Amino acid sequence: TDNGIRMLVWTSDIPERATGNHTAVVYSLYDEESSSWSEPTIIDDDGTADFCPNVATDGTSIFVAWMDSNTDEFEENVTIGELASSCEINVAIYDFVNRQFNVVTLTNNTTVDFNPVVYPNNGHAYVAWINNSENDILALNGTNTVFYSEFSGSSCGSVVTISAYEQPVSG
User: Fold this and answer.
1) Contacts of 63 (CB under 8 A, 6+ apart)
2) Smallest Cα–Cα separation from 169: which of 133, 147, 139, 126?
3) Rounded to whole angstroms, how far apart are CA atoms 101 and 171?
4) Lower CB count within 10 Å: N or C terminus of the chain?
5) Contact call for residues 127 and 64 (beta carbons, < 8 A)
6) pLDDT of 171
7) Is 129 exposed, middle or buried (0-12, 13-18, 19+ CB in 10 A)?
């Protein structure tokens, strides 16, 4: 950020969790005094699998969007389709005072929502993502619809459809 805050965000394996729910989006802050990174902290420790974080800053706020499973009931033999159908999109803003993220879930459906991208703008953020009607995480089958919503830092606006395609969406 403009005030020198440095943060890393990534998906980490959480060995205490059951197979199928063992990934979480974590962050670490850099401490100038000790020249070291903090221990990784889970952004939203809801016990469910997280994937594909996208992080951005407008210089003053830090935003993260990611895929989050809406269930923690997976068995070790969970299929890609079952996991995909549970994937929703979460977005969060970092609260510098309380040193934690404020999280909002953008989607709640039975088809895969994936590839979130966050674009910050003056303390707000726009989040775009793709939904596939056939739970095809590769987006080769079914309809791929691109959506976006504005995130105020505490809530999201209406979900807007940008376009829908019968072929893969990229870029």
Assistant:
1) 55, 56, 57, 91, 92, 93, 94, 118, 120, 125, 151
2) 139
3) 28
4) C
5) no
6) 60
7) buried
The model's pLDDT over 81-97, given as tens digits with 9 standing for 90+, comes to 888 999 999 999 999 88
Across the chain, mean pLDDT equals 91
CA 84 – CA 126 distance, rounded (Å): 23
pLDDT in tens, 17-49: 887 788 999 999 998 888 999 999 999 999 999
Q: Which stretches of 99-157 are assigned E, i.e. beta strand? A: 100-105, 112-121, 124-132, 144-151
pTM of the complete model beyond 0.85? yes
Between 54 and 123, whose confidence is greater?
Answer: 54
CA distance to 24, 52, 73, 84, 171, per residue, from 21 (Å) = 8, 14, 8, 13, 28
Cα–Cα distance measured from residue 11 to residue 62, given in angstroms and rounded to the nearest whole number: 17
Residue with tokens 């966050």: 118
pLDDT, mean of residues 117-132: 94
The tokens for 21 are 């729910």
| Three-class DSSP category at 20 | coil
**98 to 5, 65, 82, 105, 169: CA distances (angstroms):** 15, 19, 36, 20, 38
- Both tokens of 45, joined, read 């420790």
Q: What's the chain's length in residues?
A: 171
